[in-house]
């Protein structure tokens, strides 16, 4: 959801893989959906393979990324870019 909010507010996507998928897909939402499906498949694979520790670390990383994205959105919507 934060990526969609980024796109709507003119903030550039920082993840190069997501940026590439959004750029080369016919519709940016299709590119995002493809990335999210791949992440879910990898998550299920790790879960089934007993890699819970890895999943916990990835979840912490994603929580940090979402927090960072929210800060970037607030800064962008407040017009503080480059200030």
Give the ordered list of helices and strands. HHHH
Mean pLDDT: 85
Shape by Cα distribution: flat
In terms of DSSP E residues, the strand content is under 5%
Largest sheet: none
What is the CA-based Rg, rounded? 15 Å
Number of strand elements: 0
Number of domains: 1
Structural class: mainly alpha
Low-confidence stretches: none
Number of helices: 4
Helix content: over 70%
Report how far the terminal alpha carbons are from each other. 26 Å
What are the main properties of this structure?
mainly alpha, flat
Structural write-up:
This protein is flat. α1 packs parallel to α4. The chain has one domain. Helix content is 77%, strand content 0%. The protein has 83 residues and is an all-alpha fold. It has helices at 2-9, 16-24, 28-48, 52-77.
Topology:
Layout: H1 2-9, H2 16-24, H3 28-48, H4 52-77
Helix pairs in contact: 1-4, 2-3
Entry summary:
The chain has 83 residues and is an all-alpha fold. It contains four helices and no strands. It has one domain (2-77).
